[in-house]
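Q: Entry one of two.
A:
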Amino acid sequence: MSAVPPEVRPVPIDAAQRGEGRFVWRFSAFHRWTHAAVIVSFLLLVITGLPLRFSGAFWAPALIAMMGGVEAAGVLHRFGAVVTFAYFGAHVAYLVVKLSRAPDPMKLLWGPDSLVPQPRDVIDFWSQVRWYFGQGPRPRFGRWSYMEKFDYFAVFWGVAIIGGSGLMLWFPEFFARFMPGWVFNVATIVHGDEALLASGFIFTIHFFHVHFRPEKFPIDTVMFTGRATVTYMEEEHPEILDAIRSRADAPASYGQIPDTPAPPPTGVQTFAAVALGFTALALGVALTGMILWAVLLS
């Protein structure tokens, strides 16, 4: 039987599995589980918080009822907050350990593999805007693009601002011992508005950049499976190809060391990743519709 010509081969639904070349590791298990905790806790916080923020919207009573009432929604909201503080604390501990063990900690804080924003990220942003309008070449990203760095530090901002104000509203008696009363009014406004801003950003800008761009549509599960093809890495992060090629002859391993060869995701792993991804996307799109309805039509 003759091989199927390349031009008629089915295109995998997962963008990270498209193209040629071996699979390589991009994310470790710790990073993937942390991201999963972010997804679950964030969606839970948004679902339980929006009916309070837009209590006059037609969908608010139904959403509260689905969760078992106002008290149950409050319990679920606080559970989501506990998960948020847990993964945030675990990640900070991971960073401390990694910095303490690094031969040169400055390379982690400032350099081509650092997640810290640098002047080049501003240039890359402008280059990509020009590329979108056909006015220049596509920028070549290293290990992290400017958008990935923005997403990363947005979590720190969110936990600090939204989480901090939420703690004040959760334990008002404690904070009232050393804070004036007007601070709680400010915390109420900040908590709701910043949460709304975070929801809008994640469900529009983040979803577009990660999943809805033409080359990624309909989904990119690299964060769920932890691996991608060499072609994918060449398109998304071409400046680390040298590191990938230097280890190209190594056997595929489940060691999950970035840039090393990885076994392809199994059918079960792909199905689980796609199912989780589409579930999160569907919830995000539905919640965006609820927000728009409440803001524009209520």
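Q: Entry two of two.
A:
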Amino acid sequence: MSGSLLIATGADAVYFPMVQELLASVRAHAPGPVGFGVIDGGLTAEQRDWLAAEGAVLAAPPALAAAARAVRSRPALAVNLGKLWLDRLFPGYATLLWLDADTWVQQWDAVALLTGAAETGALAVVPGAGRYWKRQIDVRWIAGGMGGIGQVRSFNFKNAWHARLPLAVCRDLGTRALLNAGAFALPAAAAHWERLRHWQARILRHGKPFTSDQLAMAMVVYIEDLPAELLPTNCNYVSPRRVDAARGLLLEHYYPYRPVGIVHLAAEKRMRFDPEAKVTLLGLDGRQWQASLRHGWFQGDLSAAREADAGRRD
């Protein structure tokens, strides 16, 4: 199957249930058929069969010699490295949208924003900055900050330094927002892909494989100045959160409390492995609600809580 849009993700056997939930969320909200691709980072035969029966396209991750040792000790890392190879792994689609396995779609308008921005020829991605970041940049103050002396400890600076990129590049990137590669879209024909892989190869010589995708994006956007559209946090939302319990929707924390478009569980390690783990959510009604943030589980927890409330009133 080929077409205008493919939503791609990837997982090993442990993360497979979240891939199922992501696919369910896509099908619940997509206005029509959408291609769905999965990078196989260590799925079982039964899991691959399930995905094939659901019409998903499976692809093996690229074999990158520079990361072979890291992948042997952590096989699922191959999925993260494979993000920058989507145009080759899933040919035949005009636009490729990556969503990490620990994401799910709550409102299709976020998908439409990502794909619409990509259709301009740009890399569509959400920056790690703005009103949901308590600190826009980390600084280690030296000698108590006397004289204003400090050491920048930002994501971009640290990872560029580990990758042994030139000092001028480290300094340039140091005060710029990271680009969250958990959700991004890009046309299959964009020049970005080859440049992303160029920088991935350069970074993997000395840098950290797990963060190489986001650092490569920073190089392409900030240093090479290839077209990019930086999208609202709603398109890749991590935290904090509110809830509209009556409608069963996760909301942005700050006014006007818009419904979250794409939910990202990057900050919920326990919940990624245990869907029954719950968090406390502040409701628009002023109450606190306990719910999982996993797709399906979230809606079920809120439904059960509403039913319990109705039973108490009766």
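A: Comment on entry two: Residues 83 and 98 are 7 Å apart (CA to CA). The mean pLDDT is 92.
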